[in-house]
Amino acid sequence: MRKNAKFDRAEVVDNATRLYWEKGFNGTSMRNLQDVIDMRPGSIYATFGSKEGLFKEALNRYTEMGIEELRRCRVHSSSPLVALNVFMRNVVLDYANKAPNRMCMLAKTMGELTQDTPELLKEAKRLLAKVEAEFVTLLQEAQDLGELDSTKNVATLARHIQVQTMGLRTYAKACDNQEELETMVDDVFKHHPF
Amino acid sequence: MRKNAKFDRAEVVDNATRLYWEKGFNGTSMRNLQDVIDMRPGSIYATFGSKEGLFKEALNRYTEMGIEELRRCRVHSSSPLVALNVFMRNVVLDYANKAPNRMCMLAKTMGELTQDTPELLKEAKRLLAKVEAEFVTLLQEAQDLGELDSTKNVATLARHIQVQTMGLRTYAKACDNQEELETMVDDVFKHHPF
DNA sequence: GATAAAATTGAACGGTCGTTCAAATTATAT
DNA sequence: ATATAATTTGAACGACCGTTCAATTTTATC
Q1: C1' nearest to CA of A26: which nucleotide?
Q2: pLDDT for A115-171, tens place per residue?
Q3: Beta-strand runs (E) in chain B
């Protein structure tokens, strides 16, 4: 007596995330979304509730992808700090062609949204904190392994990585100078507060 | 036989800039603008050509305001590097309540816009470069006065300040921790590459 | 005061927006 | 095969979008 949804929710959210990441919340229309996720309005609203609801899910998917990538970097790297360096090179340098947008979707969202959509703003902040916590975990591991001086404050370092990454990705979109960017990424780990 | 415009163009652009800065290009409607600048559609279009035209002028006004503020900081400071520090404290810390948005309008614009509006994107990049050039001028002065080691590359330092400022302002909007932010601003000038 | 050019007004345009919902379709359990 | 309930469809809604332009108002000049 039941009929199950035939679309692949993960795939749909992936496509929506890509579009939202590229064009932003205000820059993306429901009709744009209908096209890329191949669903009709009724289905979209039955599944996600609203344009905001789908965006919220996209923000979460984006963050999940980022954290997965960070963990992949860890697996393929010889140490936590090398993994962090590789991850930062990825997002600052290699996203140039691969990603829908050079900038961090969470940073973009922080810039675009106001108190007109308080829940989305809150969600973006929450997810940025989640990413930062993931950095903390990796830095903690670095300390445990003796790669990082045990006197360092991992919370401070994680915050520092957030600021550097968001700053560099914004700068990268405005002025793409691969060599200089590469130097700046590497410098993050060579100097204070590391 | 002529009739001169009765509105104050500078004041109009100021008000438009404030609104655009707060809500972004896509988040601001012409009707929102009509309200805050107190002009009717016909007059706006006769004066600025389009929503994009007015935004372009707002970007320029925003940049002009920023550069003026930087120069004010220089006048009221004992040295170029102190002036840079004061300026950064202003935009990162004091804008919390004063400004329409904690983030840099140019950075916000870089995040929001795509190749759908290539001229606005180009203009934002151009203006970011202009700000960077202003930093170079100040750093050059610091070198001339012996406040800054003459072996330092002023272009590199200016780029560094851009990245730090944009990163910190984005972070500040996501997670307002005044004390930590203050430390991070001051650290910019205490450590590499300074 | 008459003239004419410039500036201003605001109704209106076609289009797109986010969203709804009655109707059609589908897949399962009997 | 039939009944049933979940899912899907897409036309339609009212609101708002950026923009236009004929009509009106204003003001410097003679």
Answers
A1: C17
A2: 999 999 999 999 999 999 999 999 999 999 999 999 999 999 999 999 999 999 999
A3: none
User: How far B178 CA sits from the closest chain A CA (Å)?
Assistant: 13
- Nucleotide lying nearest to B29, CA to C1' measure: D17
* Chain A residues contacting B via beta carbons under 8 Å: 22-24, 26-27, 103, 106-108, 110-112, 114, 116, 124-125, 128-129, 156, 159-160, 162-168, 170-171, 173-175, 180, 184, 187, 190-193
pTM value is 0.96
Q: Residues B154, B83, B128, A123: is their CA dihedral positive or negative?
A: positive
CA distances from B173 to A156, A187, A191, B178 (A): 17, 25, 26, 11
What is the spatial distance between Cα A32 and Cα A39, in angstroms, rounded to a whole number? 11
How many CB pairs below 8 A link A and B?
118
Q: Inter-chain contact B175–A125, Cβ cutoff 8 Å?
A: yes
- What is the predicted pLDDT for the residue at A1? 59
